[in-house]
Amino acid sequence: MTPEWFPSADTWAAWAQCITVGVAAWALVYASRQVREARETRERMVQPNVVVYIDHNPNSWQHLDLVIKNFGETAAYNIEITVPPYPIVPYKRASEADITEFLQFPSYIGILAPGQAWRTVIESAVDRKLLAEPLSDNDIVGHVSFTAAMIPDPNKEPFRNPIWLDPKMFKGMLRVPPDNAAKQISDKVGEVADALREGL
Question: Whole-structure pTM over 0.70, yes or no?
Answer without folding.
Answer: no
